[in-house]
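Shift notes (night). Ran ABC transporter ATP-binding protein while the centrifuge was going.
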Amino acid sequence: MTAHANERAVDVRGLRKRYGGVRALDGLDLTIRRGEVFGLLGPNGAGKSTTVEILQGNRSRDAGEVSVLGADPATGTRAWRSRVGIVWQDESTPAELTVRETVRHFARYYPRPRDPEEVLHLVGLEAQADSRIKSLSGGRRRRLDVALGVIGGPELLLLDEPTTGFDPAARRRFWDLIRLLADEGTTILLTTHYLEEAETLADRLAVVAEGRVVAEGTPDALRRRYGGEAVVTWTGPDGSPRTERTGTPTRVVAGLMRRFDGEIPGLTVTRPTLEDVYLRLTGQEAVR
Ligand SMILES: Nc1ncnc2c1ncn2[C@@H]1O[C@H](COP(=O)(O)OP(=O)(O)OP(=O)(O)O)[C@@H](O)[C@H]1O
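Came back to this:
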């Protein structure tokens, strides 16, 4: 909890955006509190990147109210920009510079930057510090982008699919970095297609579909509200598989224990995952 915990870092009301005939945002509402890690989920084309770009001040909107750290991004000053960390999708940094030179170079743009060596360590690029950017693999390139997003010591970090292209170890390391920044009080918005990532990192989530928020809450609350019933399976006395869908799996298991007088053969209890919730909310639920 930070001193600002009840303040809003991001407040969006009725956000609308069209690209020609395409309605990308259709009345999106979003509130992110200070110090919170907030995950934005949604299928391809739902409007997540457009939202992040508008919050960054890099895209205009057609309608709606937007406040980011107390300012309208459309008219954000240089001082405001220095408080917001952005990870660009296609960074146009000079490919001839080394990783260390680039991070140091970007640090000079900010009034209170983090230590470049610390940032290289945090994103796991110490071993590549003297490599030229053009020689980096795609995943390491992306880690450098993340380094440039945090070098200014932002109050708010806006991350659009930050771990796409990361190998599993780099993704875990990135999660540690996000937790560290969150512990320091940084507010973080991240979009992701990795539900495990959302569940691991986010205090609260919003699911976006067709340009609107269709559900919002903690991962637990979303699972409880939209997850549906648990599934209990076991093996019957005749050896055949049995299944029961239930809102009270403990009661079902207690009944089975009495019936079997001890160990229940083949018992499993499966509770709805965030993925089940997500697929249901975005209308992509598989027919079972
Ligand atoms: N520059 C653009 N010009 C025209 N249409 C665009 C542009 N950017 C986005 N769109 C369209 O707006 C809609 C929302 O796109 P957006 O990139 O915001 O979605 P997204 O949720 O980030 O998707 P993804 O998960 O694929 O990144 C899509 O239909 C997309 O094709």
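The mean pLDDT is 91. The chain has ten helices and twelve strands.
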